[in-house]
Model the fold of this input.
Amino acid sequence: MTQNEKTIPVVIVGGGQAGLSMSWYLCREGVEHVVFEAKTACHAWEDERWDNFCLVTPNWQCALPGHPYQGKDPHGFMVKEEILEYVKGFVNSFSAPLHENTAVTSITRHENGGYRVVAGGAVWHAQHVVVASGAYQDAVIPGYASAIDPAIVQVHSQDYRNAGQLPDGAVLVVGSGQSGAQIVEDLFLENRKVHLCVGSAPRVSRFYRGRDVVDWLADMHFYELTVDNHPLRDGARDKTNHYVTGRNGGHDLDLRLFANKGVGLHGTLDTIRDEIAHFLPDLAENLDDADKTNADIKQSIDEYIAREGISAPTEAPYVPVWQPEAQNAPLDLKAAGITSIVWCIGFRPDYHWIDVPVFNGANKPVWHRGVTDAPGFYFLGLPWLHTWGSGRFSGVSQDAAWLAGQITGKDVPVA
Done:
């Protein structure tokens, strides 16, 4: 072993909420380890969220290990500055062996067992590796975007900050998941003309029958449902998150209501050629499907209330406030005054630096509760790793405790 090579029991890749949750448990259990973070511990919250970003889940669900939310508004929704304060408070709550600005560039199996990890110009040999780098490394922008007139400014949702960042004129937002729907509202509240390409994302009401829907679902034990018991099984990981907002105390995001107020709604974007946007004929279907999902959630709450004999105010069924007329008429971007496009069509993971047989034919990692078939190799912080909260403040602590138990060979209680 050369001078530039070191041996350590555990290497954690990623110093965000997942990797640091793992570190917290290993520190408590006295397990020597190191955490490598390519940027800084809070960079995703600080550098990849818009100015008016806020949580869409209530503050009481923030439960990082040893660091539950202790503010004055458990049923409120932290804004960006408060989220940063919360995460930085967690980082400062213990002495993690964190190496920031240190990217892991290679992980391979070691010939003598364990793994060889190259990070920051040094080589580390570890018996255990926890990949907690997340599922959102590469922003998705379609290939045809490069052929769009450069006079039309294009940004991805991770680079969007506020309406003033974009040139004067109308904005085309592509994608109606959580980010897209919230960015549409952000632009609309700044009196910008907005067009939205509506995809298949479902929606959910913020409040129903006197309570936040999240509170009802928590009482119904939805957040304890594991992916093994989910009706979709592994397919749950591919579902787009429901759009809703916590802005200004929280409210529904009803795209039909936006349309009534002047937002242009279109179907799924098919392509843009010669500055003409072409859409699939699915706008009515996508809006109806989103409303059906919301109605199904409400029905499940109704059934729970009836079953448990709970006294709760009644609420009239939702009535659509707008219906589309044209299904897929093309949109001339320049004639519509569109000067910018915000791409809100997600991310894809990047695992090119991992040379370990833990991927399927689609190059997706395969695990059960974060444990792969490669001995000592784990994933953490991914959507539905085990439950709905696995990739969030609410559930990552439980997953980290479980993996700490796999590493130490003993039961590790959840903090």
